[in-house]
């Protein structure tokens, strides 16, 4: 899909109305005109200055019988105007697109999609395909979960064993591997061309068994952890040794050199402390610093990494676990990633507000798209399924009328595709479509929310186009 090269030839054609316009996510405003424009030949688009404040990513797209005008304040706005134009072209009938004026800007500056490349490696081409479709949905942050349990997928030159040991762990032969630094640079550039920032994640201190296997001296006991069969294990980076901090700072240095993103994700979720409780190094550190418990030791480690990132002009994102237990203050460059709605409801959001830290809304119910839509699948029982409608109507992260305090901290919204229980490449699209359209709508659209039936009809109308692109979702009519 090459959005950047759209050339149109104008001719006078039969009258069409904006009824034929089905743009997802729904634009702020659509004003229908009369007449249409033929999609053929090679007429350039005219770019003009914006006439009303449209913000960094907003745009005005005007299709007239004489041609096309795009007004925006900068490249991001121009890009999103072309994404919208591409949709008009794709749904054109008899080679004609209707005359229309679309004025549009996003609800949130942060609109993320995460894939777990830790548990399962995906091919570079697969990652690029995901980025293409994120752009189509006007999502602008690719949260790349690169380390998870036994898997480590990013080449770190100083510690080659990370990729060698953690790269070749997954369910199927096609899911083995890690991304070389050269491949990562290529993917970062590919994303940037689509107005997408890649935010890499190195999970600390839990979900890190791959690194601990590659370098057992990073564990509390000095012994290699056992393989993780499901969920997570108590094996953490030792929180009491300086060598752990040195290692993590070295890794973050290489990560920062590869990813220009202002934000780097340092994990922080699901870190049970049984190993730390019996570790002499961890306990000595707790005493030395006068900390209350092992959770405070995790916050101490988090703050040290956040300060290291701050010294490089970066911000640190942490999963909500760092605020949902009582603990000391967090560094001011930390962003809270709210996820655990199932157990904690909106506690992470409330804590973000109380502490004055920015929050990304990404509640597991209902933005975790690895949960199947309706039918039980492997370890996902019935209580861990949710359909398209639930996603659209009941997502706690979709805060439609935020309070002033919520508005102050909410950076935006995210959705995730974890690859646990062997979610190999062949399953990805079935999990994403059509539900990811609901996510994109909630992240981007400032228009009045459509009733579900109408929204569904608009999304399902995109199915043939997606299938022509080789994207096969889970389109049960019962949803
Ligand atoms: Zn320890």
Automatic annotation (TrEMBL):
Cleaved signal peptide residues: 1-20
Active site: 270 (proton donor)
Keyword Hydrolase: yes
Residue span, Glycoside hydrolase family 20 catalytic domain: 108-446
The EC number(s) this enzyme carries: 3.2.1.52
Keyword presence, Signal: yes
Entry GO MF terms: beta-N-acetylhexosaminidase activity
CDD domains named among the record's database cross-references: GH20_chitobiase-like (cd06563)
Biological-process GO terms, alphabetical: carbohydrate metabolic process; glycosaminoglycan metabolic process
Annotated ranges, domain Beta-hexosaminidase bacterial type N-terminal: 43-104
Pfam families cross-referenced by the UniProt entry: Glyco_hydro_20, Glyco_hydro_20b
Keywords per UniProt: Glycosidase, Hydrolase, Signal
Swiss-Prot/TrEMBL catalytic activity: Hydrolysis of terminal non-reducing N-acetyl-D-hexosamine residues in N-acetyl-beta-D-hexosaminides
One GO cellular component term: membrane
InterPro entries, per the entry: Beta_hexosaminidase_sua/sub, GH, Glyco_hydro_20_cat, Hex-like_dom2, HEX_bac_N
PANTHER family referenced in this protein's UniProt entry, alphabetically: BETA-HEXOSAMINIDASE, BETA-N-ACETYLHEXOSAMINIDASE
The family this protein is said to belong to: Belongs to the glycosyl hydrolase 20 family.
Protein name: beta-N-acetylhexosaminidase
Organism per entry: Pontiella desulfatans
